[in-house]
Design goal:
Layout (H helix, E strand, L loop, with lengths): L20 H14 L11 H6 L6 E4 L8 H19 L5 H12 L13 H15 L8 H16 L4 H11 L3 E6 L3 H10 L8 E4 L10 H11 L6 E5 L2 H10 L4 E5 L15 E3 L5 H9 L7
Parallel strand pairs: 1-2, 1-4, 2-3, 4-5, 5-6
């Protein structure tokens, strides 16, 4: 007997009420639940995951300072920019310059608030403003050189270590893996490309493509759709409490893992992660615990 009797002619061009429900009816039922009209081949594995004894079916990873050393890359790139400034116009406070740029970059995600300039143009302008504030009036192409140095040097350092590559490849044998990163679209796309993320993830969510980013539930609904998974099958891993952990909690995921290398205490009143580790390389142990395959004391 068919698993469902609803007329699915409006679901999409690949399905009709005359088709046999035994071959694809269970996948159609997913569409009824999720509200998405079209299905991908990934959803055919949904019920295999449901029959699996493991609780975890998918892992969602943040990128910056979770899988790639963004802060370290920035620090090293700023040092090289200071060398560029010192060579071009010695005697200026280069530390103050890079510190000011860092602050300005954090405003409006380093993008032109009027939307008239590209990200590259706007960030070059930020370097120009920094020089002006320090009294530099003759630029001779220096702002462009500063920006190019900063961008190139930080990007080349934003790569997965061999240990992280191995971990991701091993995890992908057991789970679906997804990369989810906040921030302006183009810089995050460049980072994802530099670290060759397509080789390690089943799905990549560049949140800048969507109206809302982490921690809003809407972007997680998109993420779960791409993973063909339910919230109770997914784990969120990230270094930021306000976006990664809060987002996982808002989406009612199975578990959240906070990457906290400094061992900082969870702020009072803030989101409380299910698990805290110092390195993302500790994640396999947490997944084993969640699946009941390793004692919690291990």
């Amino acid at each position: 007997m068919p698993c469902c009797s609803k007329d699915f002619t409006s679901i999409g061009p690949k399905f009709s009420s005359s088709s046999s429900c035994t071959s694809w009816g269970r996948s159609i039922c997913i569409a009824m639940v999720t509200g998405f009209p079209y299905l991908t081949s990934g959803h055919l594995g949904y019920f295999n995951m449901a029959l699996n004894t493991k609780k975890v079916a998918a892992v969602i990873f943040d990128l910056d300072n979770t899988l790639i050393p963004t802060k370290q890359a920035d620090d090293e790139a700023y040092e090289l920019v200071r060398n560029v400034i010192e060579e071009a116009c010695p005697g200026y406070d280069t530390v103050a310059m890079t510190s000011k740029f860092r602050v300005d970059l954090g405003w409006n995600e380093g993008c032109d608030p009027d939307g008239k300039l590209t990200i590259d143009e706007w960030r070059t302008k930020l370097w120009e403003n920094v020089l002006k504030e320090q009294g530099v009036t003759e630029f001779n192409g220096l702002p462009s050189k500063m920006y190019a140095t900063w961008k190139k040097e930080r990007l080349k350092r934003m790569v997965f270590t061999e240990e992280i590559k191995t971990m991701l490849l091993d995890l992908r044998k057991q789970y679906k893996l997804q990369l989810m990163t906040n921030g302006p679209l183009e810089p995050q796309r460049e980072k994802a490309q530099v670290c060759e993320s397509n080789d390690y993830f089943d799905s990549i969510i560049l949140c800048g493509l969507y109206p809302e980013q982490k921690p809003y539930p809407s972007v997680y609904r998109r993420a779960l759709w791409e993973l063909a998974a339910e919230p109770g099958q997914c784990v969120m891993v990230g270094d930021r409490l306000g976006t990664d952990i809060q987002g996982g909690l808002n989406a009612k995921l199975l578990s959240t893992v906070w990457i906290n290398p400094a061992g900082t205490a969870v702020p009072e009143g803030g989101p409380v992660p299910h698990h805290i580790v110092k390195s993302v390389l500790e994640l396999p142990k947490i997944l084993d615990i969640l699946n009941g395959t390793t004692p919690a004391s291990a």
